[in-house]
Amino acid sequence: MAQGQMAPGIVAGRLSSDELAANFDDLHPAYAPHEAAVAADRCYFCYDAPCQTACPTEIDIPLFIRQIQTGHPEAAARTILEQNILGGMCARVCPTETLCEEACVREAAEGKPVEIGRLQRYATDTLMARGVHPFTRAASTGKRVAVVGAGPAGLACAHRLAMLGHDVVIHEARPKAGGLNEFGIAAYKATGGFAGAEVDWLLQIGGITVEQGSALGQGLTLDALRADYDAVFLSIGLAGVNALRAAGEDKAGVRDAVDFIAELRQADDLSALPVGRNVVVIGGGMTAIDAAVQSKLLGAENVTVAYRRSRAEMGASGFEQDLAASKGVRLMFNVMPVAVHGNGAAVEIELEYTTSAGGSVTGTGETVRLAADQVFKAIGQTLRGAPEGLELDGRKIKVEGAGRTSVPGVWAGGDCASGGEDLTVTAVAEGRDAAMDIHAQLSA
Amino acid sequence: MADLKTNFLGIESPNPFWLASAPPTDKEYNVRRAFEAGWGGVVWKTLGSEGPPVVNVNGPRYGAIYGADRRLLGLNNIELITDRPLETNLEEIARVKADYPDRAVIVSIMVPCEEAAWKAILPRVAETGADGIELNFGCPHGMSERGMGAAVGQVPEYIEMVTRWCKTHYDKPVIVKLTPNITDIRYPARAARNGGADAVSLINTISSITSVNLDNFSPEPSIDGKGSHGGYCGPAVKPIAMNMVAEIARDPETQGLPISGIGGVTTWRDAAEFMSLGCGTVQVCTAAMTYGFRVVEEMKSGLSQWMDEKGYTSVDDFIGRAVPNVTDWQYLNLNYVAKAKIDQDQCIKCGRCYAACEDTSHQAISMSEDRVFEVMDDECVACNLCVDVCPIEGCISMVPMQPGETDPRTGKVVQADYANWTTHPNNPMARAAE
Fold this sequence. Notes:
The structure holds 2 protein chains of 2 kinds.
Chain A: H1 17-23, H2 33-41, H3 50-54, H4 61-69, H5 73-83, H6 87-93, H7 100-103, H8 105-110, H9 116-129, E1 144-148, H10 152-163, E2 167-172, H11 180-183, H12 194-203, E3 208-212, E4 215-216, E5 219-220, H13 222-228, E6 231-234, E7 240-241, E8 254-256, H14 257-266, E9 278-282, H15 286-298, E10 302-306, H16 318-326, E11 330-332, E12 335-341, E13 348-357, E14 360-371, E15 374-377, E16 381-382, E17 392-393, E18 396-397, E19 410-412, H17 424-443
Parallel strand pairs in A: 1-2, 1-6, 2-3, 4-5, 6-19, 8-15, 9-10, 9-15, 10-11
Antiparallel strand pairs in A: 7-16, 12-13, 13-14, 17-18
Helix pairs in contact in A: 2-4, 4-5, 4-9, 5-9, 6-9, 10-17, 14-15, 15-16
Chain B: E1 6-8, E2 11-13, E3 17-19, H1 28-37, E4 41-47, E5 62-66, E6 72-77, H2 86-99, E7 104-109, H3 115-127, E8 132-136, H4 150-153, H5 156-169, E9 174-177, H6 186-194, E10 199-202, E11 206-208, E12 211-212, E13 219-220, E14 230-233, H7 238-250, E15 259-262, H8 268-276, E16 279-284, H9 286-291, H10 296-310, E17 338-342, H11 352-360, E18 365-367, E19 373-375, H12 385-389, E20 396-400
Parallel strand pairs in B: 3-4, 3-16, 4-7, 7-8, 8-9, 9-10, 10-15, 15-16
Antiparallel strand pairs in B: 1-2, 5-6, 6-14, 11-14, 12-13, 17-20, 18-19
Helix pairs in contact in B: 3-5, 5-6, 8-10
């Protein structure tokens, strides 16, 4: 018997396994072939297409859609994967509404872009379902490259280097490769163990070894890597989480949203995963939305996203905001946490209203209290564990050109590196481009 | 709502929308349902001589060409004339005509090219009370191999001969249905007129192979691995049909010969266009086969609404109105100068006009860094390709230059008077202006 939404506290099994299975089903179900054909027919095959320009990996979108149209989804997949080896995951998680689909001329014409993301998924799923890996390795160069972190940037970099004939060792702290594709991102965006399957498929290229439990600071040093390898690529992500800086932050029931999401992604049985009755998520980005929506889908009665700035300033896209609203998540704007109340464990959260103008946030003095037995902090991640000696740019590893750090022979990309948005697709582009630069330098 | 009443050769029908001789008109059941759905008339599917009827293939009879979302644009068929006994058809025609006296019932006929064969069947058809006959000189497949259908329609002498037999042995209107599978449609039309035909109808289907199966290399539709050319119809053939209609309408030898237009009529607009080119009625098949008989509702309401908007009270008000404007290329006004103009407010910046012009035409459209596309008047020849490839209707238009303005492409002042190729100095055959 399910516990129900009203069960007090943080409890598991609020919903039946059938309800949970339905709730965590594919957000955008895969196209059937005819749907794909109809969707593909809508593409105008634009000249110097704006969608391609808007894609951080610059996939030739009109070409791959035309290949779907003419009955060759596998060829379409190859067009995609040549630019973006994680095209399957990007098709699922890219905020297309702010990238290719926003740029689609049909968005301008009628407010309904060609569904590029879903078409990309159709192509890549078709290819991957056949179990083939479309790329082969060049003759061995005898060069060895270390990649630190098996997230999207690291995987993209490793794959491209392996293709070019280099041998790659990926050092990964966690027990599984995939980075945020495996441990972050809402479950309904990457159903059916896709993240893991994609990594396995990617590694079919050969020449890549993944060493699990191997991380900088845990026996691994940059100096040693530089000595042992011909080049080093750092893609260590943002392992730290910003503090709330509100009274009562240490009470039971207050935790980092990224940990909750990782736990959820790794859970074999969602009905064993506890969630509060009254959940408040602090933050305004994708992580906040992912945590909030999944709390709701697990059966929380009340879920609120509390963001300290206005809707217009929210990091989460309009699509994500609408998704949250449609699942019954309440979005509160211009409120910031001042205290978590409760005797040992959180019971309420006290929020202060704000005005946010010109970048600064000022409390108005007026406060409101919400019931909150669970509070998720989703106010941004920070660089942690970056090796000494690397120049930083603000709070990230400073890179120039195609990911070159201040240390010779060391490149960096993905969320840990400066420049670009913190998106899977951007990480893939940075990993790929760094690989090309490493290759150029190793071949010189 | 404007009255769509039509009088064609003295045959009255409540509207000009007739179902063409084809599978939809093969039997009483269908024709009754068609009349209930509102069709103005039918041309009964082609009858053959008495005796064992023809047989059809037992595999696929149709092949198709699609546009976006599997919208059927072209259909080809290898079906023959009716495969039901003559007697059955005649009984059914008589019953239907008796029950629907206000609708046009025309009987399509195809018998061997011998006077006796025609003389035998015509009185039988007359007995049904049908309003007229249509001679099937068009069917391009199967029957033509047996010396009938298009095999007759491709020989003007035969057309004239058979038409004359029919006028001799039948006293109601005789319509001759023409095949487009010839080089110049005017010759068979003239032959029909010379034979005494009351009207021509066109086009019959166009010989075609719609596709080839790339696994077994059989043309489609495939019958046990082999395919035969079929007859092509549907929206794709409309431009070909309209040109042939216009050729007959403006030919001095056939001018005034009534025409029933056939070929891809799918909407009211198609019908209005055919009729403006001189057709007194239109015949429809593919649209009905694609969407069912109910599609006639839109055709009727659409034509009627358009007539109201234009102030036409009868179809006779616009039949043939476009004919005087169909001319030969040599008479087109070479002093008419237009330039493409892109409406920036409507432009969605797809760049198709740019690609088309830059890659395949006159390099007359510029593209800026921020994707603003503009026509360069000094290069634009007004070819219209940009208009044709633009996905937004009305975004690019062809704006005529006014007399007195200077065409920046040629540096010449636009003249108000009309001048064509016949008098152009570059024409070696030019005659001095009189």
